[in-house]
Amino acid sequence: MPAIRLASEGMSQEPTPRDVDAFLDSTLVGDDPALSAALEASAAAGLPSIAVSAQQGKFLCLLAAAMGARRILEIGTLGGYSTIWLARGAGPEGRVVTLEYEPKHAEVARANLQRAGVADRVEVIVGAALDTLPSVTGGPFDLVFVDADKENNLAYVEWAVRLTRPGSIIVVDNVIRDGQILAPAPDDRLMQAVRQTIELMGKHPQLDTAALQTVGAKNWDGFAMALVK
Fold first, then answer.
1. C-alpha distances in angstroms, 137 versus 96, 107, 129?
2. Which structural domains are found in the chain, ordered by start?
3. So where does this one cross the membrane (predicted)?
4. What pTM was computed for the model?
């Protein structure tokens, strides 16, 4: 393909998905001090750099806003970056319940949510999600975002179905994993679980599911989105 001139660098070069993400972020998200601070605080605390991208976060926000989601469940908080996006989509009258296994992550997330001005609409529950899900209240949820330990995704999807209603949406992140989903190694429990989750969502009688591949700053991955029937 022809070389494309990148105005920000003043030189011609082959664009990369990361370059495109940078352009999209600056054009469609812009400067957002609360989100930037959340990422910086998470990095300073030593949290892994595995939060959703800005574009993925805004997609979740717009999805929640478009469907009028007022009750949102998130499985996997990390530093609260995606939680901020979900809380914004839910609006001032909405409520987000987010589950986090690591107490340190939850502490960082609470500070980030407070700084972003959405702490009053978010409940952070600490503990293994499979232990805390049975006692989660506030449902049925309009939107569920699953982005936690992949080995338990099958159980998380079943819980998501149980805690939602017909018309709700379930989004599961990281379902492509650089294409490893096609032929996961027999001893790779994580990738086996990712593939089994897609297979479950494809045949589940209460779900109608599609999956989208994504590229960008987070490399080659994707998410599955299911409508609860």
1. 11, 21, 13
2. 31-228 (3.40.50.150)
3. none
4. 0.92
